[in-house]
Specification:
Elements lengths: L1 H17 L5 H85 L2 H44 L5 H6 L4 H27 L5 H9 L7 H31 L5 H4 L6 H26 L6 H7 L9 H12 L30 H22 L5 H15 L3 H19 L1
Length: 418
C-alpha cells in the first residue's frame, strides 16, 4: 500500500520538474506542497497499517475464543457422560460389598436358619409348580372347548355365541357351553318335529328345518312348528269330517279305515277318488231307475250296491247285463262276480276322447319329469301328490279334472326343476 503512495508522489514531482520554473518563490511553494502531500500520504499509510494490525489482532482473539468454546463443549459433554454413568457405578460399588459379605453372612447362619430357608424355597417352588399345573389344566380345558366348538360348527350349527365367549374366564365359558348344548338339543328335537310334519306342508317344514342350526331362532321355529301342526290337525279333521258326512248318508267308508295314519296327500287323494266314485254311483242309480218295471226285480237286487263305492265296477257290470236283458249275475250274498274289465290291461286301449288322450299324455310327461327330479335328489312330493289326484280322476273317467290336476303337477315339477 505504501509503495503505491510513493510512486504517486514521485510521479507528481517528476511532472513538476518538467514545468518551467517561475522563480525561487515558486519553487519554494512547490517544495512545500510536495512535502505536505508526502506527509499526508505517509499519515494515511500509517493509519491503514494500524487498521490492518487491529483486524489481525481481532481475528486472532476470535480464533482463540473459538478454540476455548470448543474445548468447553467437550468438557461439558464428558461431564454429562460421567454423571449418567455415576448411578450405575455407585450401585455396583454398593453391591460389591454385599456380594462379598454374602458368603460370610451365610457362614454365620445357624443350621436351623438354613433349614428354614431351604423349606421356604421348597414352598415357593411347590407354589410355582401348582400354578403351572393350574395353568396347564386351564389351557387343556380351553383346547377341549375349542374342539367342541369346532364340532358344533362342523355339524352346521351357528357358533357365533361360543366364539364371542372364548375369551371369557373358564367358569363363564363352561356356563356358555352348557347353555349352547341345551340349545343344540332343542334344535335337534325341533328338526325331528319338522320331519314328522305331513309332506303336504313339506315346503313350510323345510324352511323351518333350515333354521334349526341357529340357537337364536329357536322361538321362531317352535312357533312355526306349532302353527304347522295345528294346520295339519285342522286339515285332517276337515277331510275326516267329509268322510263322516258320507257315512251318515249311508255310504260304505271302509276304505278309509285302511288309511289310518296315511299322509295328507294320500288321504286327500282317497277323498277325491271317493267323491268321484259317488258321482259315478249316482249316474248308475239314474240308469238303474230308467229300467222301469221290466227290470224292477233285478234292479232291487243290485240297488244296495249303490251305497258301496268299492263295488262300483261290479255294479256297472251288473247294470250293463240288465240293460241287455241278461241276469245281473249277483250271488246270494250280494257280492256279485267281478267283471272282466276290473283288471287293467297291460296295454290300455287307445283313448277315443280327446280330453282323455291329452290328460294321459300330460300325466305320462309329468311322470318322466318327476322321475328326473327324484334321480337329481330333489324332493318331488308336492308334484307327486297332484299327479296322484290326476290319476285318480282319470280312473274315474273324469278327464277334465284329470287334465286340470295333471297340469298343476307338471307346473309344480317344472318349478322344482328350476
Amino acid at each position: 500500500m505504501s509503495g503505491i503512495y510513493g510512486m504517486a508522489a514521485f510521479g507528481a514531482l517528476f511532472k513538476k520538474k518538467k514545468e518551467p520554473s517561475a522563480g525561487a518563490a515558486a519553487r519554494d511553494r512547490e517544495d512545500e506542497i510536495r512535502k505536505n502531500v508526502l506527509d499526508d500520504f505517509r499519515g494515511r499509510e500509517d493509519a491503514i497499517h494500524a487498521r490492518e494490525a487491529a483486524v489481525a489482532a481481532r481475528e486472532e482473539r476470535l480464533e482463540k475464543e473459538r478454540a476455548e468454546l470448543a474445548s468447553r463443549i467437550q468438557e461439558l459433554a464428558a461431564g454429562a457422560a460421567t454423571q449418567r454413568a455415576a448411578p450405575a457405578r455407585e450401585a455396583r460399588q454398593k453391591e460389591a460389598p454385599a456380594r462379598s459379605a454374602a458368603p460370610a453372612a451365610s457362614r454365620g447362619r445357624s443350621i436351623r436358619e438354613l433349614e428354614q430357608h431351604m423349606k421356604s424355597l421348597e414352598e415357593e417352588l411347590e407354589k410355582a409348580r401348582a400354578l403351572h399345573r393350574e395353568l396347564t389344566a386351564l389351557e387343556k380345558k380351553r383346547a377341549e372347548y375349542l374342539e367342541r366348538l369346532i364340532g358344533f360348527k362342523t355339524r352346521g350349527f351357528s357358533v357365533a355365541k361360543l366364539e364371542a365367549a372364548m375369551g371369557r374366564p373358564t367358569d363363564e365359558l363352561d356356563k356358555a357351553f352348557r347353555a349352547f348344548q341345551k340349545d343344540v338339543d332343542t334344535l335337534v328335537a325341533l328338526a325331528a318335529r319338522c320331519d314328522r310334519v305331513d309332506p303336504f306342508f313339506s315346503v313350510e317344514a323345510g324352511a323351518l328345518k333350515a333354521l334349526c342350526t341357529r340357537p337364536e331362532a329357536i322361538a321362531d321355529v317352535e312357533k312355526g312348528i306349532r302353527e304347522l301342526e295345528a294346520r295339519e290337525l285342522a286339515k285332517r279333521k276337515l277331510l275326516m269330517d267329509r268322510v263322516g258326512k258320507w257315512r251318515s248318508e249311508g255310504y260304505v267308508t271302509a276304505r278309509f279305515e285302511r288309511l289310518e295314519g296315511a299322509s295328507m296327500g294320500d288321504l286327500e287323494e282317497a277323498i277325491l277318488q271317493f267323491d268321484a266314485d259317488i258321482a259315478a254311483l249316482r249316474k248308475l242309480g239314474a240308469r238303474l231307475d230308467a229300467l222301469g218295471q221290466a227290470g224292477a226285480a233285478q234292479a232291487a237286487q243290485i240297488r244296495p250296491m249303490l251305497a258301496d263305492p268299492e263295488r262300483l265296477h261290479e255294479l256297472e257290470n251288473a247294470l250293463s247285463r240288465l240293460e241287455r236283458g241278461q241276469p245281473a249275475a249277483v250271488d246270494a250274498a250280494g257280492a256279485g262276480q267281478p267283471p272282466a274289465f276290473i283288471e287293467e290291461p297291460d296295454e290300455p286301449p287307445a283313448p277315443t276322447d280327446p280330453a282323455e288322450k291329452e290328460a294321459r299324455d300330460l300325466i305320462a310327461e309329468t311322470e318322466k319329469l318327476i322321475a328326473g327330479l327324484d334321480s337329481a335328489g330333489t324332493d318331488p312330493t308336492s308334484a307327486e301328490n297332484l299327479l296322484r289326484m290326476a290319476k285318480s280322476f282319470a280312473r274315474s273317467k273324469n278327464f277334465p279334472k284329470a287334465l286340470e290336476y295333471a297340469g298343476k303337477a307338471h307346473k309344480a315339477a317344472s318349478t322344482l326343476k328350476k
